[in-house]
Amino acid sequence: MSEKPVSFRTPPWLARTGGRDWRCASAPADVRGFHAALPGYAPTPLTELPELAVESGVGRVFVKDESCRLGLPAFKALGASWAVHRTLTEWTARGDGAGPVTLVTATDGNHGRAVARMAHLLGQHAHVFVPRGVHPRAVAAIAAEHAEVTEVPGPYDEAVRRAAEAAASPGAVLVQDTAWPGYERIPGWIVEGYSTLCAEIDEQLAAEGITDGPDLVAVPVGVGSLAQAVVTHYRSHPAGHAPALLSVEPAAAACVLESLTLGAPVSVTTGETSMAGLNCGTPSSIAWPYLRDGLDAAVAVDDADSARAAARLAVLGVSSGPCGAAALAGLRATLTGAGADQRRTALGLGPSSVVVLLSTEGAAANPYSSATGH
Ligand SMILES: Cc1ncc(COP(=O)(O)O)c(C=O)c1O
């Protein structure tokens, strides 16, 4: 009698030592105040989900719920608002032109919509380049922010190249959320903008009686700018408790996992994924040193993992799109299946550990949510 094969599903995973001991400079202190003064600003919820703690064998699990951030259904407005503010301040100071500026960017959805929203609010123009694979409703949502939209029949990296070319015209400036050699300042401002999210988590955990921070933070990763902000935040405390930091990518676009494995930043050929915001083939050049030195582990998940995680979060009352739910999918992939004990140990997790999952978008941000039934 033939035996039924047993599948020990092992996720694509990499752990490294030393991340928790690495230190870097902190983000500027004035970002939080800038955001707090924006109309409609409020900290997004940090929701405790005890059911997930039981399922994961840890003490407490919190979800940072970015389903409504400055009126948009993803965290991206934090970076876009600060970077556009800094860019326009500099533009005006230089006397670079009397008329409106065209803010140019490439996006797989959320960033472009946030840039377009900021441009319109501030009386400027936006031109947004969208790669193939972005849901037509996400494209329409960007156009509805009064942006000119150009659809590029290629992957995200190609859309970034096209946006950079367009931004070379007079009166235009590129506001991109990824960096490459020679284009680093504005992406750096975007990363600074994301620091508000981490500052809020500190305050919210302290209000829950957790004063020395979480033990693990799981971050959905595309080019790694958000992860750079998270590493910067948790690795810039001079001493004391430092959490493990886990990056989570789609298996179809795991450029950070691949780069960490090879020890150098590399581009990967991306495939199709419902995690549209994470469908990026090249790590940001300014993020890379932070990811290389400050992350503890990287994992890749597939669309079905993320859809299951989104469904679980929905049942527990948190609206999470495929990218946002990747954080829970990554935690589950890490803590289950063959090798789970070693992965749990690598992250230093025990029964009293505090885990924070960054749910970076709500279901409304990504129409693929409805395509997968959530
Ligand atoms: C919802 C969502 N989560 C996470 C990310 C990943 O951010 P980064 O590209 O900075 O790694 C993105 C990027 O677009 C996103 O839209």
From TrEMBL:
Q: Which residues cross the membrane?
A: none
For this UniProt entry, the molecular function terms from Gene Ontology, in alphabetical order, are: lyase activity
Q: Write the record's keywords in alphabetical order, separated by commas.
A: Lyase, Pyridoxal phosphate
Q: What is this protein called?
A: PLP-dependent lyase/thiolase
| Record carries keyword Lyase | yes
Q: Which cofactor does it need?
A: pyridoxal 5'-phosphate
* Gene Ontology BP terms: alpha-amino acid metabolic process
Domain called Tryptophan synthase beta chain-like PALP: residue spans: 39-335
Please verify whether the record's keywords include Lipid metabolism.
no
